[in-house]
Write a structure and sequence with these properties.
With about 190 residues, this protein is an alpha/beta fold. It has a single domain, classed as Alpha-Beta Complex (Maf protein), CATH 3.90.950.10. It has helices spanning about 10-20, 40-60, 85-95, 135-145, 170-175, 180-189; strands at about 1-5, 25, 65-75, 75-80, 100-110, 115-130, 165. Strands 1, 2, 3, 4, 5, 6 and 7 form a 7-stranded mixed sheet that branches. It is elongated, with a radius of gyration of 17 Å. The mean pLDDT is about 95.
Length: about 190
């Protein structure tokens, strides 16, 4: 059955490649707008589902659609992708020297013979970042691409040297909980 990734994320593509999954990419253009009336978890579940449903409408035939939404939570603040350099700085300054949560919400839709089944899993991790000097923050921002990363950082890149502790699924922090995905795919194929 055809597998479709509803994301242009290079990290998610690399993780599917690592899992030896053959897939095609159909990018979801769904805005990742958080509803203030919902909890962070509810927002993540809804956004992930909306991304998958949008790609479902763009495609046809028997297929499996994979979508995921990942974001960072610190106390009551929810951080997605930064809008600009100033936003990236503010996010990283806020996360500096603290422990925060990374939440990944996975949606898999299987369509076979026009019958649709939806599977969802959520993964939460705790990440502790060392205290960052301003020059370290600006060096990261100016020499890397923080604008397509929830929380403005990528644990699998050079920024990983500032991470002193993680509790939970590393791949959820990267942006795709591959163990959860594997279990879903094993169950539905």
């Amino acid at each position: 059955m055809k597998i479709i990734l509803a994301s242009k994320s290079k990290r998610r593509q690399e993780l599917l490649d690592m899992m030896n999954i053959k897939y095609e990419v159909v990018v979801s253009k769904k805005d990742e707008v958080k509803d203030s009336a919902l909890t962070p978890l509810e927002n993540g579940i809804n956004i992930s589902l909306e991304k998958a449903l949008e790609v479902k409408r763009k495609t046809s035939g028997d297929r499996i659609i994979i979508a995921c939404d990942t974001f960072v939570i610190k106390e009551t603040e929810i951080y997605g992708k930064p809008k600009d350099r100033g936003d990236a700085y503010n996010i990283l300054k806020s996360l500096s020297g603290t422990t925060h949560e990374v939440l990944s919400c996975l949606t898999v839709i299987k369509i076979k013979n026009n019958i649709e089944d939806i599977y969802q899993k959520q993964s939460s991790c705790k990440v502790t970042i060392d205290y960052l000097e301003d020059d370290e923050i600006y060096n990261w921002i100016d020499n890397h691409e923080p604008y397509d990363k929830a929380g403005a950082y990528a644990i699998q890149e050079e920024f990983g040297k500032y991470i002193s502790k993680i509790e939970g699924d590393y791949y959820s922090i990267v942006g795709l909980p591959i163990n959860d995905l594997y279990k879903i795919l094993k169950e539905i194929e």
